[in-house]
Amino acid sequence: MGMFALLGVLSSCLHSAVILQKNAPTAGMAVAQLTLTNKLEQVSQAGNFGELYPDYRWELNPHEILTNGLFQVDVTVYHQSQVFSTMSILLFKPDSPRNF
Fold this sequence. Notes:
By secondary structure, the protein is α+β, with helices and mostly antiparallel strands. The protein has helices spanning 2-21, 27-31, and strands at 45-48, 56-66, 70-79, 82-92.
C-alpha cells in the first residue's frame, strides 16, 4: 500500500512540474485585481494580458450568491478563440452594492 501511495504522489508531482513548465497565463492572473478592494459590481468584465501574452484574453462573470456580499466569480481564459482554462472562486465583498 505504501508503494501505491508513493506512486500517486510521484504522479501528482510530475503533473505539477509539467504545468509549471508551460508558459501561459492563468485564471488567477485575471482575478488578482478583484482582491484589492472590498467592492465588486455584478458586471461582466473582459480584457487581455497585454504584450506578455498577446494571444490570450480573459472574461470575468461575477454574481452574488448570498445577500451578505458573497460573490461567485466565473473566470474564463481564451487562447485565440478557444477556451484555455476556467475557474470559479468565491469572494466576500461586504462593501458591494446590493441587488434586491
